[in-house]
Prior knowledge:
By secondary structure, the protein is α/β, with parallel strands linked by helices. It has 6 helices and 13 strands. It has helices spanning about 15-35, 55, 65-75, 150-160, 175-190, 245-250; strands spanning about 5-10, 40, 80-85, 90-100, 105-110, 125, 130-135, 140, 165-170, 195-200, 220, 225-230, 235-240. The strands form 2 sheets. Strands 1, 2, 3, 4, 5, 6 and 13 form a 7-stranded mixed beta sheet that branches. It has a 6-stranded mixed beta sheet with strand order 7-8-9-10-11-12, with helices on one face. Helix 4 runs parallel beside helix 5. It is globular and about 50 Å long. The model has no long low-confidence stretch (mean pLDDT about 100).
Amino acid sequence: xxxxxVAAAQISSGPxxxxxxxxxxxxxxxxxxxxxxxxxxxxxxxxxxxTDLGAIAESLDGPFATGLRKVAADAxxxxxxxxxxxxxxxxxxxxxxxxxxxxxxxxxxxxxxxAFGSRESDTVAPGKELVTFGLRDVTIGLATCYDLRFADQxxxxxxxxxxxxxxxxxxxxxxxxxxxWDLLTRARAADAxxxxxxxxxxxxxxxxxxxxxxxxxxxxxxLGQTHTRLxxxxxxxxxxxxxxxVAAVRSRVPIL
Length: 256
């Protein structure tokens, strides 16, 4: 059994990566001071959708990623945050960077948000690989936003041993979208039989079809029960994940 202190920093990103790094750094430092070991920030932490993503995209050794590495190392925590890196075909990848003492990984969003009038694939190239990483004795899976609509990805992460799945997001607002977010985060936790920590951008009034966030970051149990949920505004969720619950659920309900 491992008990892991986690946090989801529900911030609101603007178009400027330099300014967003300041916001992210402040959120990480505060969450670490409050006892978090693993701190999740939203998808598109480096720059909000609606920005010229090609212009702000950078490699994983660029200034935004380097800044995240520094604050994670200084605070002694593991950080997961969304940024955009150039792809070989001229688009960008919607990437999660995982960084901290002894931990370095990245995940490129597989399922792109071509829905509700939005066309993420026009500017974003899809990833192809499922990714997990280890923190202490916990296997943690990665997914991003629209991935939540694809149950097989979460079942596969559960079969890879993920006991916690983190899902940074920038969920588009609209009729029924809050209910869909709540439903899908709970369902995907149950599909994986894992804890699921979803960190959305704080609510921003909709602008066209760009997904800008609704808040409602949450931690869900391996049985699909909501453990903790935030409101719409900028704030941080703190919780404790007990991995013994995962083993108990998978033993009692052997679906994987």
